[in-house]
Amino acid sequence: MTLAAFCVLATIASVVRWKTTIFFGIYKGTFIVNTIGSFFLGLVSSFDDKELILIGIGFLGSLTTFSTFCANIDSLSKRNYRSSLIYILLNIISGVLASTIGLNISEN
């Protein structure tokens, strides 16, 4: 049952990520899902509940994507190193801030 739930959640998250990148564009869409995913991963990471861990790994792990982030960096760096550096910094800073906010909310 856990494996089936994991697969369903991962599939749904993949579709959400794909639709978000279509709607906002690949760079903005990846930034948005990674920031939102980081917030919710921070939020659920302090819980011990099995279902929340499954959501964190299955859904949010599939929603956020390091491989697309790296592909975006590679694509941007071929055109403009400055743009790729800004993209890297914005993604990392927003992800860390979002996850910190999520952790702080879950601890209160």
Task: Give the arrangement of secondary structure elements.
Elements: H1 2-24, H2 26-45, H3 50-63, H4 66-79, H5 81-107
Structure write-up:
- The protein is an all-alpha fold and 108 residues long.
- It starts with a helix and ends with a helix.
- 91% of the residues lie in helices and 0% in strands.
- The longest helix is centred in the last third of the chain and has 27 residues, at 81-107.
Give descriptors for this structure:
5 helices, mainly alpha
Question: Tell me, what's the shape?
Answer: globular
Helix-strand pattern, N to C? HHHHH
Note poorly predicted spans: none
Question: Number of helix segments?
Answer: 5
Radius of gyration, whole Å: 15 Å
Number of strands: 0
Brief description of this entry?
The protein has 108 residues and is an all-alpha fold. The chain contains five helices and no strands.
